[in-house]
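Exercise 7.
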Amino acid sequence: MYGSKKAGTVQGSGCEMKKVMNYENFTEVLLDAGFSMGGGNSEGIYSIIDWDWDKEPPYDTPVKWHTGDKETDPWEWRMRVLDERNDTAYAKFFFRKSGYITKEWYPYFFACRRGSMDFMDMYLEGRISNEAKRIYTSIEEEGVMPLHELKKAAGFGKEDKSRFDRALVELQMNLFLTICGRRHKISAEGKPYGWDSTAFCKTEDFWDREVLKAASAVSSKEAEERIREQILRLNPLASDRNIYKFIYGRAGR
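Solution. The predicted structure, written as tokens, is:
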């Protein structure tokens, strides 16, 4: 099985689970695994931290959700990997929920979900909504945009929250946009205020050309086989239905 030797292992249901004691352990296991759900629900596939915020860990660990401790709070790690590393993406990639994909494995997901198609190809085929196009166009024009600015630039009001949220997830699931950090709101005086706002950018701006080149060099069939094999190493009990949906972002055959 995959995982950090430093972190150790413990027996779980159906497969070996990895003990994670801190952020360093988490990144070690993530690089070995290649991908993971971002929350405590594995969705029948795999999650490094596989217990929810209101549940007790299945082994003795200081790791706990929503404490604000950057070393032991998984909620803090989602942005920390973006701030401190260049080999991991975090966004709503799987089952319309958050997840991680490392640089090594991103080309395989890219090959399965986008292949050689660019944004306009998918849009003209009717696979991208008009709402998603408005958001994507705003990002194309401005580059990195925090959530609050993106919503306004794309012409969404308060009453459009659900439509905006759906379209934003749609773009992440299709690997056109990804989270690239956080930005403060700026006052009229030019000073930051309030809570941080999640920032988004185009996938092509997040990764270097090496990742996109690797994606173009592999077929969707080969990419699917590689991901499927890795999933079953991480979780031998994963069902074909869940595996397909995890890989392609949609229900399948």
